[in-house]
Amino acid sequence: MSSSASSLPDVSPFPERMELSGEGLVLRDWTEEDRGAMPELFDHPDIAYWTPVVSPFDEAAADDRLVRARQLRAEGKVIMLAVTVDGGAPLGEVMLRRAPEGTELGYAIGPAHRGQGLAARAVRVMARYAFEVLGVDQVILELEAENAASMAVATKAGFRLLDVPLITGEEKGRAYELQTWGLDRERA
C-alpha cells in the first residue's frame, strides 16, 4: 500500500448533498422516501453474513441507517449513497470510508438486482470520485476470500489483491479474515 493510502488525505466534511453519475448509474443520497425499500435490499442472509449491516434489517434499522449515514458524512468519515440507474428507486448501496488503513469502498446490492454489474460499476464511479475530488492515490476493498461474488466484483472493477497482512476480527459472533484489494489512480 502506498504511503498516501495509509494516511487520511483530508478530513474535511463531505458535501451535505451528493449525486454522482457514470457507467449507466446515478449514485445519490438516501432519502426518507427510501425507508420502505431499504429492508428489501438489506434484510437478506448474504448481506447479514458478509457485511456489518444489522440483521434483521427492518424499518427501524432503516431509520437508524439514515441518521448514521448523515452523521458520519457530516464528520467527514463516510459517504453512503443509494445505487440507482436513473436517480429513482434504490437497488443497493455504495460506501466510501476514510480510515487510517486507506480510503475504503464497500457495497451491497439488493438480491433482486444482482447479476447486472451494478456493484462493479458503482465501485468504479465512487473510486473516480475518490481520485478526482478527494485526491487519493489508491482505494481499497476489504473482502473475505470465501466471498466469491465480492472477489468477482473486485476483479471486474479493476482491483488487485495487495500483499498486506490479513485483517482478522469477529463480528456478529463469527470470526473473519479480510484480504485487502487495491485500485490505484493510474490503473483506474
UniProtKB/TrEMBL annotation:
* Domain of life, per lineage: Bacteria
List the InterPro entries hit by this protein, alphabetically.
Acyl_CoA_acyltransferase (IPR016181), GNAT_dom (IPR000182), N-acetyltransferase (IPR051531)
Coiled-coil residues: none
Residues forming the N-acetyltransferase domain are 25-183
- This one is known as GNAT family N-acetyltransferase
